[in-house]
Amino acid sequence: MEQVKTLLNELSVNPYGEKITVLGASKTRTAEEIIALFQAGVSVMGENRVQEFKEKYDTVHAAGIPYRFIGHLQTNKIKYLVGKVDLIESVDRTELLDAISAASVKAGVTTEILLQINGGKEESKSGYEVESVLSAADYALSLPNLKLRGLMAMLPADKNEQTLREICLQIREKYDIMRARYEGRAQAQIEILSMGMSEDYAIAVACGANEVRLGRILFGERK
């Protein structure tokens, strides 16, 4: 775990002076592995699959670990997350906003969310386009029992470094607009720009990410 601690020291503050959250992407990992990584200093975990979230939740929650959802979410599985998940980072469409709001009202809770951006406009990935995310944010804030915390970006894997930087900076610009636009709104606390994974986190941080979602680089190769 010394390598993990070294990485956490390197990823302390971004160029905007913001503290960086390192999220452990725990797909296929056991609850025991999650707890070990948490004890090594990784403060937040995120699950890609609802079934895995359900299976590990009791153990992870009992250990006091913030547990988020970061994968594609079907509307019929929202009921397994609402009231339990700390944050849904992957809200990628209006239908999902409506469904999370309705489920949260029914459960009598407020669910915190990030809006997901499809940074490369890839057909294989879901999410809002950069140009439309502010309209999506306005709509999210019109719904009850939701709290908007910021943005999560899916970056294209096949772009060169300069193109990735341009995409990340465009997303950072929208994030800064959101922070200014919604300051003081009860349903908004814009603090999180989740951008970058094991392959591209350094570029994302240099362009203003204050959360990175790392799996292999923290847990090691999947068995």
Description:
It is a single chain. With 223 residues, this protein is of the alpha/beta class. The chain has one domain (2-219): TIM Barrel. It has eight helices and eight strands; from the N terminus they run αβαβαββαβαβαβαβα. The chain has helices spanning 2-10, 31-39, 50-62, 94-107, 133-140, 161-181, 201-206, 216-219; strands spanning 21-25, 44-47, 67-69, 87-91, 111-118, 146-154, 188-195, 211-214. Strands 7-6-5-4-3-2-1-8 form an eight-stranded parallel β-sheet. Helix 2 (31-39) crosses helix 3 (50-62). The protein is globular, with a radius of gyration of 17 Å. 42% of the residues are buried.
Brief summary of the model shown:
By secondary structure, the protein is an alpha/beta fold.
What attributes characterize this protein structure?
223 residues, eight-stranded parallel sheet, 8 helices, 8 strands, globular
Strand content: 15-25%
Number of strands: 8
If helices are DSSP runs of H or I spanning 4 or more residues, what is the number of helices?
8
Radius of gyration: 17 Å
Largest sheet: 8 strands, parallel
Residues in helix, %: 25-40%
Secondary-structure element pattern, one letter each = HEHEHEEHEHEHEHEH
Number of domains: 1
Order of strands, main sheet, comes to: 7-6-5-4-3-2-1-8
Task: List segments where confidence is low: pLDDT < 50 over at least 5 consecutive residues.
Answer: none
From the 3D coordinates, which CATH architecture would you assign?
Answer: Alpha-Beta Barrel
CATH superfamily: Alanine racemase
Mean pLDDT: 95
Structural class of the helix and strand makeup?
A: alpha/beta
Measure the end-to-end span. 18 Å
Apparent shape: globular
CATH class: Alpha Beta
CATH topology: TIM Barrel
